[in-house]
Specification:
The complex is a heterotrimer of chains A (about 260), B (about 625) and C (about 230).
Chain A: E1 5-14, E2 17-27, E3 32-36, H1 43-51, E4 58-63, E5 66-67, H2 73-78, E6 81-84, H3 96-107, H4 123-132, H5 148-159, E7 166-170, H6 178-195, E8 198-202, H7 206-212, E9 215-220, E10 223-228, H8 230-234, H9 237-244, H10 248-258
Parallel strand pairs in A: 3-8, 3-9, 6-7, 7-8
Antiparallel strand pairs in A: 1-2, 1-4, 4-5, 9-10
Helix pairs in contact in A: 3-4, 3-5
Chain B: H1 2-32, H2 39-56, H3 59-86, H4 94-116, E1 132-135, E2 138-141, H5 142-164, H6 166-176, H7 178-183, H8 188-209, H9 211-214, H10 220-235, H11 240-260, H12 265-279, H13 309-323, H14 325-328, H15 331-356, H16 365-382, H17 386-408, H18 413-433, H19 435-438, E3 444-445, H20 456-479, H21 481-491, H22 493-498, H23 503-529, E4 531-532, H24 539-552, H25 559-574, H26 580-594, H27 598-609
Antiparallel strand pairs in B: 1-2, 3-4
Chain C: E1 2-11, E2 14-24, E3 29-33, H1 40-48, E4 55-60, E5 63-64, H2 70-75, E6 78-81, H3 93-100, H4 113-119, H5 121-125, H6 136-148, E7 154-158, H7 166-181, E8 185-190, H8 193-199, E9 202-207, E10 210-216, H9 217-221, H10 224-230
Parallel strand pairs in C: 3-8, 3-9, 6-7, 7-8
Antiparallel strand pairs in C: 1-2, 1-4, 4-5, 9-10
Classes of the chains: A alpha/beta (about 260), B mainly alpha (about 625), C alpha/beta (about 230).
Chain lengths: ~260, ~625, ~230
């Protein structure tokens, strides 16, 4: 089967620095692919190019065979790519359900309407999306007072509003407690199964990555240094050196603790 | 050739004062994140204080001593302002700070009027530099040469202070993260005060230095402000070399403009600005400002809901009472309420884009006055009947809004505010300088309604239907998907873009919509007064609207027209006092500090406290 | 050395810290554990007086520092290392250090540029680079280095392991242990129990702004129920 997303020779330089250097990979339908690497390795740059915030210096990004490299974020969204942000981005002056309705209004191209009352539009669809992420009981709450974990779930509902084929998640669990992290990724994995969405995400929490990713790619100094299954990555000496570390310090302590 | 060089030298000399005011503004903005709209006032103070000092201090030493002393005194006045006005509002949203500094403008205006009187003062000439020197046969004042020498020296000293000293390093660090600087053991409160002193002293110095060239008058605060904003925008906010470069460009351009295109000097400046912004949105040497990195503080705005039946009934009752006005009251009240209604629509249009879209415009009078002038010009030159002119006014204002909005919306936050102000000044200067067409200072007169509408009561009904209709339409728009899209673009542009919303386009449509409504108000205004003068395009007029919106309550839906009704209602009474600006300025400052919810917000709060209104669950 | 006594802090109307009581003895490392939003950062900011406690007091070396301006607290020997790597990105590494520099203090190490570069060799090569050119891990090092330049006797480290690569996390742990060996007292906040276990002597667990456990690491290990309840790994 042909891949959902196919990235070829993607590069981006800032001055003399090659932030992303000749990166190529594929993402299959229904796959949960993690992109990891040290800070400054080029993950954000790579992500921003996929989402249209940044134009690549060279290379192509094909979504279902169409090149989307250099397109504006909103055009990429229209082609079926949803995203969540590392630092949550929601509309603080609206209610939870209105945040989702906003995405639906945009999807149905109703933004310039002056005659209807917005809060009645696509309400049922929005509520059912909130139901998928377990937020329906908070639908009428003011977005500005939500707990952090709930904001993350709201963002997920918003990203799913236009039935995307691909979801890009930038550090989805950053700033969450360990238990919440696992819960959020489990939720993502369930939705992915149910809707057949593919996911590409960056993440620093290796517990999350190792327990949920189907496949892992490691970026270092702008280059893809490894791409493989969880076990392959875990045992890859190069990855251990630049990113994972020997784990000696912690392992020793943990073993003491368990002893 | 000689003339050419002489003109360049004059431009360089003029750049001195402009650079000092601009660099002071830039410096203060860099650290405190406050665009000090009162900076022109400190410049004016510098001129007046310098003038008085020069009267007392004799000779060459006295002259230069007076300039230096004027700088220090103005700096100290700045310190008082910083401590009393700005410290309490540093953590408030941008708009509140801007409004507070505007209060300072009013206060200083009246204080200067009180102390020095209304007449323009002619600056004394510099002792020992009264003559001219000849360069290739052309006379160049010696004082100009002195200014040309002094300015780079000041610029270099500033640059050295900021980039090479520990204090400068701390200042640059505070520019980015004040809280962190404080946590590292630096007394940031005094750092701020120090920077404010320096910035104001520079403005004062600029004002005093230009005395021999320009003297002192009560309008110089706003006159310089427009140019300073242009300089800062062209040079790049926060860049000292940028400020110098831009000040030189603008000043030289002005000198040539006076010679070769005397009617378009002011316009020229804006053309340069627009061109620069097209290619470098953050100015020649500026860097991208990450606006609102640590977010707006204060209580977040609550979700809005369409009015319930009780409120609708109340509004309907109010409309009926207003609609029957000519039946039960005299001519005076009818005319007064006509004025109030027009001003309400103007304020509501600004409030719409400001409140829903977060677009803080400081030049909204461009569309009010623009609509008024458009109607007046059509009547004067094309004998257009009132009915058609009232249609053409909003259309012309809308077209202007599309163009101005397209340029201004390339930038955000304070840049946007400054650009709108600058464009407001541009339209004003067009009306003012292009006397052949617009009548200049004499304005356009004899713009009366059609015969059938010439009765005050009939015209009242025209204004009543158009204004209340406009205000209701704006309100409906806030509840419609379009209003939601505006708030989405305001709350989180990156999320909005990531969900397919073309935020710039939404904002441009909102800007245009607001411009159309302001243009309609302007059209109604001109026929109710029968005339139009350039002062309807002034920055002061834009500020009027901004202030009533603010005092009415920014984070409410009705703050705009409520504030407008209230202030237009009491204006007549207020302006009878000689120093009403002082009183208004002080009350604005007090409101900013003590009651930033405004009239409607305070009423809502009171209503909730006494159980008249339901408190939303999440606001408890 | 540091006593937090009955501290209550609010953000507006929200009660964020509820009667916090704990001590940190000189020369120890205490970890403040709890999930995001539990009140760890607020506890730190309340100690630094960046958030003013509404009641209670903070005693440092026998002196009540409650309601002092935070720059005075910092000059008194408390160094705060914020989360989110709040370095001055427009300034060079050296300039960042300059901002943190304070006069020498009795009984504390007087740090020089060279000494912090010895501690963080990566920063040495990048001394003239602007903060924004640094990687996340280097930025995290710079926040610590910058605070050390103030010659503190006590440092507050807010989430030193959040959002950085595992290799750097290990380096951070080593640095903390080294600072401890040089006589510094450390209060750090963490979500990562492994990290805390590697460096801490004492533990304070908070949840919803209330402290649930205060004791040594060994005491916590002896009560697995508490550990599992609040620190699910």
């Amino acid at each position: 089967m042909s891949p959902i997303l196919s990235v070829r020779n993607l590069s981006r330089s800032f001055g003399a620095i090659k932030a992303v250097d000749d990166v190529s990979f594929d993402l299959a339908k229904g796959e949960l692919l993690a992109l990891i690497g040290p800070n400054g390795a080029g993950k954000s740059t790579c992500f921003n190019m996929l989402m249209g915030q940044l134009k690549p210096s060279s290379g192509t990004v094909q979504l279902l065979g169409k090149n989307i490299a250099g397109m504006q974020p909103r055009k990429i969204w229209r082609m079926g790519v949803g995203r969540t942000f590392q630092i949550t981005a929601t509309y603080a002056s609206m209610t939870v359900v209105e945040n989702v309705q906003m995405a639906l209004m945009s999807f149905h191209r109703k933004l310039y309407s002056l005659t209807t009352f917005a809060h009645t539009l696509y309400r049922d669809e929005a509520l059912s999306l909130l139901d998928t992420v377990g937020m329906v009981d908070q639908a009428e709450r003011h977005c500005a007072v939500l707990a952090y974990g709930d904001l993350k779930r709201l963002e997920l509902a918003v990203a799913l509003a236009h039935d995307p084929i691909l979801l890009l998640m930038d550090e989805p669990t950053a700033g969450m407690a360990p238990r919440e992290r696992i819960a959020l990724m489990q939720l993502t994995a369930d939705i992915l199964d149910a809707k057949g969405v593919s996911v590409l995400f960056t993440e620093h929490d290796m517990d999350v990555v190792f327990s949920h990713a189907h496949r892992i790619m490691v970026l270092n100094r702008g280059q893809l240094i490894a791409n493989g299954s969880v076990d392959e990555i875990r045992n890859n000496p190069q990855v251990q050196e630049v990113y994972l570390g020997g784990g000696t310090l912690f392992n020793a302590v943990q073993e003491d603790a368990h002893a | 050739m000689g003339l050419f060089i002489a003109q360049i030298l004059t431009g360089l000399a003029n750049a001195g004062a402009l650079f000092m005011v601009a660099s002071g503004l830039s410096l203060i903005f860099g650290v405190t994140r406050v665009v000090n709209f009162a900076h022109g006032s400190f410049y004016m103070l510098g001129a007046y204080v310098g003038y008085s000092l020069m009267q007392v201090l004799p000779g060459m030493v006295g002259f230069w001593g007076a300039i230096l002393l004027a700088g220090i005194i103005v700096g100290l006045i700045g310190v008082i302002v910083e401590i009393c006005v700005l410290r309490p509002v540093y953590s408030a949203p941008e708009l509140f700070q801007l409004v507070a500094t505007f209060g300072v403008i009013l206060v200083i205006q009246d204080l200067v009027l009180m102390i020095w009187g209304p007449q323009d003062l002619l600056g004394p000439r510099a002792p020992g530099l009264k003559g001219v020197i000849r360069i290739m046969g052309e006379p160049v004042p010696q004082y100009d040469i002195a200014l040309i020498v002094i300015t780079p020296f000041v610029a270099f000293a500033l640059w050295y202070l900021i980039t090479k000293t520990r204090v400068g390093t701390l200042v640059r660090a505070a520019t980015q993260d004040r809280e962190m600087v404080s946590a590292l053991g630096v007394n940031q409160a005094w750092l701020f005060t120090g920077v404010f002193f320096l910035g104001c002293a520079l403005a004062g110095l600029g004002g005093a230095l230009q005395l021999p060239k320009g003297g002192a008058d009560l309008l110089m605060d706003f006159t310089i402000l427009g140019s300073v904003f242009v300089v800062v925008v062209i040079g790049g906010m926060g860049s000292l070399p940028g400020a110098y470069l831009a000040a030189v460009i603008i000043s030289v351009l002005n000198v040539f403009g006076v010679t070769y295109a005397p009617q378009s000097t002011l316009v020229l400046m804006f053309v340069v600005m627009v061109v620069v912004l097209m290619f470098r949105p953050f100015g020649l040497l500026g860097k991208e400002e990450v606006a609102g990195e640590h977010g707006q503080v204060g209580e977040p705005e609550r979700p809005i809901k369409p009015a319930g039946n009780r409120i609708r009934l109340l509004v309907a009752a109010g409309l009926v009472i207003l609609g029957l006005l000519p039946l039960y009251s005299g001519n005076f009240a009818v005319v007064l309420v006509t004025d109030i209604l027009i001003f309400c629509l103007f304020a509501a249009s600004l409030h719409f884009m400001l409140g829903q879209g977060g677009l803080v415009s400081f030049g909204h009078a461009a569309f009010f006055g623009g609509g008024a002038y458009a109607a007046a010009l059509f009547v004067t030159y094309a004998d257009t009947p009132m009915e058609l002119a009232l249609v053409l006014a909003p259309i012309c204002a809308g077209l202007a809004a599309i163009i101005i909005g397209w340029v201004c919306l390339r930038s955000t936050g304070v840049y946007f505010a400054m650009l709108t102000l600058a464009f407001g000044q541009l339209l004003w200067s067009l009306a003012f300088q292009w006397g052949d067409v617009t009548g200049g200072d004499d304005g356009l007169v004899n713009i009366w309604p059609s015969d059938w509408a010439s009765d005050n009561s009939v015209y009242y009904y025209i204004a009543f239907f158009l204004c209340t209709g406009g205000i209701l339409l704006l309100r409906q728009a806030a509840h419609a998907p379009f209003g939601y899209a505006m708030r989405a673009a305001r709350d989180s542009a990156r999320q909005a873009e990531a969900m397919g919303i073309n935020t710039k386009r939404v904002q441009l449509v909102a800007f245009t919509f607001a411009g159309i409504m302001a243009g309609l108000a302007g059209g109604l205004f001109v026929f109710s007064k029968g005339s139009i003068f350039p002062n309807e395009l002034e920055t002061a007029r834009s500020f009027d609207a901004l202030i009533v919106v603010f005092l009415g309550g920014v984070k409410t839906l009705s703050g705009g027209w409520v504030g407008a009704a209230f202030f237009e209602g009491i204006k007549d009474y207020l302006t009878r006092f000689e120093y009403w600006r002082l009183a208004l300025g002080l009350s604005i400052i007090i409101v900013v500090i003590l009651g930033p919810e405004g009239i409607v917000g305070s009423l809502r709060k009171a209503g909730e406290r006494f159980g008249l209104l339901k408190v939303p669950e999440d606001a408890k | 050395m540091l006593e937090v006594k009955g501290v209550n802090s609010f953000y507006g109307k929200a009660h964020v810290l509820n009667d916090m009581n704990f001590d940190v003895s000189a020369g120890t490392v205490v970890a403040l554990l709890g999930r995001n939003g539990a009140g760890k950062t607020t506890t730190m900011k309340s100690i630094m007086q960046m958030v003013r406690p509404r009641s209670g007091s903070v005693i440092y070396k026998g002196q009540d520092i409650t309601n002092w301006p935070s720059h005075k607290v910092a000059r008194n020997g408390l160094g705060y290392v914020p989360e989110e790597r709040r370095i001055f990105t427009q300034l060079t590494v050296l300039e960042n250090l300059e901002v943190g520099r304070q006069p020498p203090r009795d009984g504390c190490t007087t740090w020089t540029d060279q000494m912090v570069f010895d501690l963080f060799p990566n920063l040495a090569e990048r001394r003239n680079n602007r903060g924004k050119a640094l990687s996340g891990g280097e930025q995290q090092m710079l926040t610590i280095a910058r605070t050390l330049m103030g010659n503190p006797s006590f440092i507050l480290l807010d989430e030193p392991s959040e959002g950085i690569a595992p290799v750097i996390v290990e380096q951070m742990a080593r640095v903390i242990l080294q600072l401890k060996s040089e006589g510094l007292t450390v209060l750090l906040s963490e979500q990562n129990l492994h990290f805390a276990q590697a460096v801490a002597d004492g533990v304070v667990i908070i949840e919803h702004g209330t402290q649930k456990f205060v004791g040594t690491l060994a005491e916590l290990q002896a009560q697995p129920d508490i550990r599992d309840q609040y620190l699910s790994v």
